[in-house]
Design a protein that fits this description.
The protein is of the alpha+beta class and about 70 residues long. The protein has one domain: Arc Repressor Mutant, subunit A, CATH 1.10.10. The chain contains 5 helices and 3 strands. Strands 1-3-2 form a 3-stranded antiparallel β-sheet. Helix 2 packs across helix 3. The longest helix is centred in the middle third of the chain and has 9 residues. The chain is globular, with a radius of gyration of 12 Å.
Amino acid sequence: MGLEELLALPATVNVTTAGRALGIGRDKAYELIRNGKFPVRTLPLGGTVRVPTVELWKVLGIEQCREAGVST
């Protein structure tokens, strides 16, 4: 997933999308969530799990790019 695609993500994303951004598969992402080792806070909402995009950006260093004015 490229920087432009990461910056275009909505406020929250599903686990599959978050995993893709982190370079891991869906099954590994859910395993990490179950074990409390997913690198980003998750939001359990009923039968689904969402990941806050801004926190995903922080883990990936996107916030520093945006603050430094790096263009997409």
